[in-house]
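Side project, low priority. Logging it here so it doesn't get lost.
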Amino acid sequence: MTKNVANQQSSIISFLFISQVTKQIRIFPLIFLLFSSLPVWIVAEIISPQMVRAYTARVDLIIDRLPDENYETTLRRAEATARAAAQRSFDQDILATDVSIIVSVQSYGAIAPILALEVSRPQWRSRPDAQLWATYFKTARSLLFFEQTPTNPVNIAPINTVAPATTTP
């Protein structure tokens, strides 16, 4: 005595009605979530605006020592270069709140940092003076051979920026 239950329909509620109700139940929460989240997002943006993404602009510069140039003259050129780079960094990038500039000097093949300029935008706006905000490296004078002329200067080959030509056989 086995009954075949596979083809029997429900005697309580028809399947067609149940499938229509479940579609309505699925659509209602979706619509509710979409339309209720939009006002919440707008209120959150009005109450707490987006954060500004500010950062420090970093610049590394290398200047060459001119022939027969002393340390003080090179230092003044480095200060002028740092002052111009700081002003240019603040002018070009509105989101930069701080500027960090390191000026290095190349002398007889040796390269060493001579000064570091670290300044914020309000500080620079109040006093745009590189000497005021610069940190000077005391050992640069001896590292760059300003105290004596090296007997055997290092010759550095120029850097070739052109791609080498290729030959096809």
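Brief comment: Residues 15-50 form one domain.
Revisit when time allows.
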